[in-house]
Amino acid sequence: MWRAARTFLISSATAVWLGGLTFYALVVVPIGTDVVGSADQGLITQRVTAVLNVMAVAVLAMLGWDLVRAPRRGVWVTWLTMVACQAALFVLHRVLAEMLAGGIAAATGHERFYQWHRFYLIVTAVQWVAGISHVWQLTLSAIRSRSTIEIAPGD
Question: Dihedral sign, CA of 131, 97, 39, 116?
Answer without folding.
Answer: negative
